[in-house]
Design goal:
The structure is a single chain. The chain has helices at 2-19, 138-145, 159-163, and strands at residues 31-33, 55-57, 75-77, 95-97, 115-116, 135-136. With 165 residues, the protein is α/β, with parallel strands linked by helices. The protein has one domain: E3 ubiquitin-protein ligase SopA (Pectate Lyase C-like), CATH 2.160.20.80. Keywords: Signal. This is Low-complexity protein. Residues 1-26 form the signal peptide.
Amino acid sequence: MKRFYRLAVVAFVFLLLVSFPTDARAASSSSISRGAATGEVIGKDYSGQNLQTAEFANADLEAANFSNADLRGVVFNGAKLMNANLHGADFTNGIAYIVDFTGADLSDAVMEEAMMLRSIFNDVEITGADFTNAVLDRAVVKKLCARASGVNSKTGVATRDSLGC
């Protein structure tokens, strides 16, 4: 069963890489669909909202507030989440492909089984974040392990343990 799960993950990642642009600049427009609001998104307040399965493609979400939001299954593709607040958000089974999280607050967030490939995590706050079974680039895991601390208040999992530090 574990082997099947791994094969399914590899197949999914392959489909992601083939389906989405390899560079955030390659997509010419910004789109938000399936339950997310349209229009200006910089600094927008999504705190506490249910945004399950929303898609943010090439969106500029700088300083947006997603604190305690339900982001299960959400797709961020080529999005800018610089200085965004995702404190306590549930990003389980979400996808963050080519996303810039520079300066974002991911503290106490749940990111179980999230696919977070080719994303930037400079100066992020991850105290108490749960990355259990998340798929991250190896270099990113090493960088996050250097600052990992705390225990997630919802899952009881230590950040360092969830990253495999």
